[in-house]
């Protein structure tokens, strides 16, 4: 499957509202907070797999921001939201940038789509400068409530998720690319319903409150097993 307009309208993005204060909006705000907290303001930042441009657009006022995506349609569409960011079409497994050229690299829900995610992570290591920051996000096979969902778990719903791995496997790949993990955490239980016959709104309040608090406050506190995604902030050695 190609990551074109059809993909964005029929998979993850189909259930996303771009309205302000939506879950998608808060997620991008949270990742922008991480980038500003750990990155060097005014330095070069790259988002690998920038999608429709909303995150890299938020960061274009703080960094010299670059966004890249595999699909021409997504890159063209993202110009509406990308602010002053520089955009181009390219693949994650062969980054079109020189060595040590970025202080911050974000790769958010991309590696699970790649046939060779190890190569992509090595490429990120190559383009990240010494003491630079990697912000990494992918579905979490170690999620505590994943067994409750069975084959309906969110990570299994997209047929282009061809490279799902256990958290330790991802951490090994990140370390092998020359990074030292600083924070390894999760994003909370937002993939309701988890319990049959209990209203979704109530389940969002019960299961999603901690993830929501983390997203709103920007403070990282959720253990790796307490959520549907694993998130890593790592520094280049």
Overview of the molecule:
By secondary structure, the chain is of the alpha/beta class. It contains eight helices and seven strands. The protein has helices at residues 5-10, 23-38, 54-59, 72-78, 117-127, 146-149, 167-176, 200-217, and strands at 44-48, 64-69, 86-89, 102-108, 128-139, 179-186, 229-236. A seven-stranded mixed beta sheet has the order 3-2-1-4-5-7-6, sandwiched between helices.
Features:
single chain, 237 residues, alpha/beta
Topology:
Layout: H1 5-10, H2 23-38, E1 44-48, H3 54-59, E2 64-69, H4 72-78, E3 86-89, E4 102-108, H5 117-127, E5 128-139, H6 146-149, H7 167-176, E6 179-186, H8 200-217, E7 229-236
Parallel strand pairs: 1-2, 1-4, 2-3, 4-5
Antiparallel strand pairs: 5-7, 6-7
Helix pairs in contact: 2-8
Largest sheet: 7 strands, mixed
Task: Work out the number of β strands.
Answer: 7
Residues in helices, as a percent range: 25-40%
| CATH architecture annotation name | 3-Layer(aba) Sandwich
Task: Summarize this entry quickly.
The chain has helices spanning 5-10, 23-38, 54-59, 72-78, 117-127, 146-149, 167-176, 200-217, and strands at 44-48, 64-69, 86-89, 102-108, 128-139, 179-186, 229-236. By secondary structure, it is of the alpha/beta class. The relative contact order is 0.14.
């Amino acid at each position: 499957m190609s990551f074109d307009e059809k993909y964005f309208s029929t998979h993850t993005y189909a259930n996303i509202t771009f309205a302000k204060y939506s879950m998608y909006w808060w997620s991008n705000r949270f990742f922008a907070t991480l980038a500003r907290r750990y990155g060097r303001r005014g330095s070069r930042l790259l988002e690998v797999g920038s999608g429709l441009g909303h995150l890299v657009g938020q960061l274009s006022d703080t960094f010299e921001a670059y966004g890249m995506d595999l699909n021409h349609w997504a890159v063209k569409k993202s110009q509406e939201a990308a602010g002053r960011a520089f955009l181009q079409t390219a693949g994650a497994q062969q980054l079109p940038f020189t060595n040590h050229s970025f202080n911050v690299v974000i790769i958010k829900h991309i590696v699970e789509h790649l046939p060779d995610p190890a190569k992509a992570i090595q490429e990120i290591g190559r383009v990240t400068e010494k003491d630079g920051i990697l912000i990494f996000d992918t579905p979490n096979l170690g999620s505590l409530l994943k067994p409750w969902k069975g084959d309906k778990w969110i990570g299994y719903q997209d047929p282009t998720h061809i490279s799902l791995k256990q958290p330790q496997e991802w951490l090994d790949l990140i370390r092998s690319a020359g990074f030292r993990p600083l924070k390894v955490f999760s994003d909370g239980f937002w993939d309701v319903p988890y319990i049959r016959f209990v209203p979704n709104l109530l389940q969002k309040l019960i299961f999603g409150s901690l993830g929501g608090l983390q997203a709103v406050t920007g403070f990282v506190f959720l253990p790796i097993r307490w959520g549907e995604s694993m998130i890593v902030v790592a520094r280049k050695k």
